Amino acid sequence: MASAADAARRAENEKTRSRWLLSAPALVIIFVAAIGPLFVMLAYSFMAKGDYGDVKYGQFSLDGWFSVFLQRDIFDDTIGIAEAHLSIIWRSVRLSVITTAVTLLLGFPTAYFIATRPRHTREIWVFLVTIPFWTNLLIRTFAMQQVIRNEGILNTLLMWLHVIDEPLQIMYSDWAILFGMVYVYLPLMVLPLYASMEKLDFRLIEAGYDLYAGRLAVLRRIIIPLVKPGVVAGSILVFIPSLGAYVIPRVLGGGKNMMIGNLIELQFGAGRNWPLGAALSIALMAAVMVALLFYVRNAARSGAQHG
Amino acid sequence: MARHFDIRSQPGFPLIALFTFAMLYLPIVTLVVYAFNASDSVSQWGGFSLRWFADAWDNSAVQDAALRSIIIALCAATIATIAATMAAIATTRTAPYRGLGVKYAFINTPLMVPEIVTAVALLIVFSRIKVWTGYSGLGYLIIAHTAFCIPFAYLPIRARLESMDSTLERAAADLYATPWMAFRRVTLPLLRPGIIAGFMLAFVISLDDVVITEFVKSGGQDTLPTYMLGQIRRAVTPEINAIATAFLALSVILVTAFFFINRRKT
Amino acid sequence: MPDPSLARDQRVAIEARGIVKEFGQGPTALRALDNVSVTIRENEFFTLLGPSGCGKTTLLRMIAGFEYPSEGAILLYGEDIAGLPPFKRPINTVFQSYALFPHLTVRENIAFGLEMLGRPKAEITSRVAAMLKLVRMEELAERRTDQISGGQAQRVALARALAPSPKVLLLDEPLSALDYKLRKEMQIELKRMQSETGITFVFVTHDQEEALTMSDRIAVMSKGKVLQIGSPWDIYDKPADRFVADFIGETNFLVASVIATGSNMVRVRLATGAEIDATVTEGWQPTGEVTVAVRPEHARAVASGGHIAGMVENVVYFGTDTHIHVRLDGATGFMVRQQNSRSQSCGFAVGDRIGIDIAADAAQVLRD
């Protein structure tokens, strides 16, 4: 009896070991080139900044975190609010919220439209959304730049229609960043929305109409509550990369209209303030984690509801 | 006849959908059209020409960057696919065990952390290692790319594994196959579409990366995207459009292939 | 089509006139309904009965407003409702899948229609309470709809459809998802609710037994056509044609030839030479070769004699009765259903040669 139990335990141990061995390469690579560096960065955010970039090793300092929101006046050493940083953070949050709202307003009807096509054409529409999703973000940003430039197709069209007399200066403004982010992140909204609308039971909509609900009431009282998981998923999927956007504001916003991503880069370049850059990165990551947590909790709740 | 009431339709939705699709494709189409522009500018149409494709083809900086992109993508996608396949086998079709949650969290981390954050974290660590070891080759880019490619390779492989009937391996064992033979003769062939899809996803993701590459690369290690990022800031000629168009064509081909591989047999 | 069962002087709730419905176009078009006319009286329990694909659900969905006829008209108390979307028709549906809103509670589901009609809060509260009581779901009012059983979901669906006091209630195979015992209970409960509320029920089912036990009148449909409309008794005892006789209950078919004609009655000679009387639907004078239907319970197995004879092939015991399957001399099968008594078995064994006695007035001549 004892030997049988031993054999069973040995087999179980063997299985556990082989599972860890099989997962080891993936785990090690991700630790070395993704997770480990985050901890190093966390440590860096608590060190004093070096004179020419980098940090002064082992020299503890809260200056990095301190200067996220505050700054010391170089002349009289008084402490004031770092308005430049705050305005950049505010721009990031504002543009990300607007991007999420606009992509939702465009994406919801689009996803619904796709979900109500006949089955065999639906795949083609989804494919049409997937293609831009998988094309290079830089190329799409660049493509948007060509559309909204002063000589671009948008201005040309508006002038030809006599809506405006001279080209609108869209490039290098918040508007340009907004155009770019909406364009680039739209598929991230449509795809999860479609995933939940595809599962929509249209008999429930029939039941709604049967019980005297009009078009708007069916949309508001039945369709939207039923696809809420998709709405939340899409919004999170758009909001998170918007908040951490780097390429889009760099290409379309020019040097002046920075977002958090660009502010972080600046600290590792001309700013030569690695601890501040590290602190900003950790703060950005924390914000993203909070958003993700909200999403996971929501998904768990709706999973419990329908599963 | 308006009196025929369609329960599925919502007023205005098709119009907005149409606008969305126009918006998704108008910029790409504009970009591609101007790649074939004969004139020097990207705003004045000067007739059809392939000269910018020829220019890009002859540009040694573009050649180097393209070659580098492909080398990195091939290495990263290959390593990521192998690691992801092994990890998928260890984490699917099993009762929950201690450490499973940790594995999931690890594998998904690159998807959740903003790219710019990973990029500067890698900059911090790799710049120090470069100083210590004196090595500044492509290895840093390859390992960084491998790390963020793993979750993308993992997804389709795992999905494929989960839809597979685990009694097949038991049947193989019943027919005297050793675990290794069962894996090679039964699991692996059935898993192949998932592995191919995972590799292609990883390849496209590596090829597309700008941010992490921009921060990790040493001098003279431009990939095609970082080369383009540098060019976009300077005076713009349709040469960039030509490069972007070629790049775009490659992505579309890969994505289309992926789409069909995934659709067949699921 | 004249509807002989519509003799009583009563208000008409729904009238479908010459309904044609085609899905698709051109030569591949599928004709789901082919010139269907049905008249449904106020307060009646009317059933559309037929096999799947016969068009009964399409007709029901037309009355609800989810489908539109290609030709013909649907009238509600004399008014054409073709132009009304479903949310403007005072008609509610109990869906086959129940279609309860998963994001709302039982109470919210029942209140939904009243809220959409903009009824005052107080009225909604009291009406919902009354409905919960009617379907005996007061205890579970705050449950979410995925936390209740199939039978309970069925009752909620019913309460939800009844709450706005529709002029007509449509029920699309509402009992098909329930198990046998629950189905029997719900049949009785539905009947009770119909008489309590006095609402016209239009019921769709493929279950002939369900149709017979519940309905005031039944329309039997097949392949997009209405074959017969009448009371359960009419349909069972005087099936108009072979399909109806075969679909409703169990029937034996015998080939016979007409030898004399009377009013609604003919005398036929069976293959064995025996002669019996058979009823005929009004206004029809069959001649020559005909098919005659005899219900199994209207025949009796006898040791010798009888109208026809054959060999016992199988004896199946059913508790309340026994089915005796007989192979007739003409090679056709015939089934006799005999009531069991407690003390003795039916007395026949496989292989026995027996005769079959057909009761007077049991045979019905069928149209093919």
What does this structure look like?
The complex is a heterotrimer of chains A (307), B (266) and C (368). Chain A has 307 residues and is mostly helical. Chain A is built from 13 helices and 4 strands. Chain A has 2 domains: 79 residues, no CATH class; 225 residues, Orthogonal Bundle (MetI-like fold). A two-stranded antiparallel sheet of chain A has the order 1-2. A two-stranded antiparallel sheet of chain A has the order 3-4. The longest helix of chain A is centred in the N-terminal third of the chain and has 43 residues. The two termini of chain A are 42 Å apart. Chain B has one domain: MetI-like (MetI-like fold, Orthogonal Bundle), CATH 1.10.3720. Chain B is mainly α and 266 residues long. Chain C is of the alpha+beta class and 368 residues long. A 6-stranded mixed sheet of chain C has the order 6-7-8-3-9-10, with helices on both faces. A 5-stranded mixed barrel of chain C has the order 11-12-13-20-14. Chains in contact: A-B, A-C, B-C. At the A-C interface, helix 8 and helix 9 of A face strand 6 and helix 2 of C. Chain C: The complex is composed of two ATP-binding proteins (PotA), two transmembrane proteins (PotB and PotC) and a solute-binding protein (PotD). Chain C: Its EC number is 7.6.2.11. Chain C: InterPro entries: AAA+_ATPase, ABC_SmlMolc_Importer, ABC_transporter-like_ATP-bd, ABC_transporter-like_CS, Mo/tungstate-bd_C_term_dom, NA-bd_OB-fold, P-loop_NTPase, PotA-like. Chain C: Keywords: ATP-binding, Cell membrane, Membrane, Nucleotide-binding, Translocase, Transport.
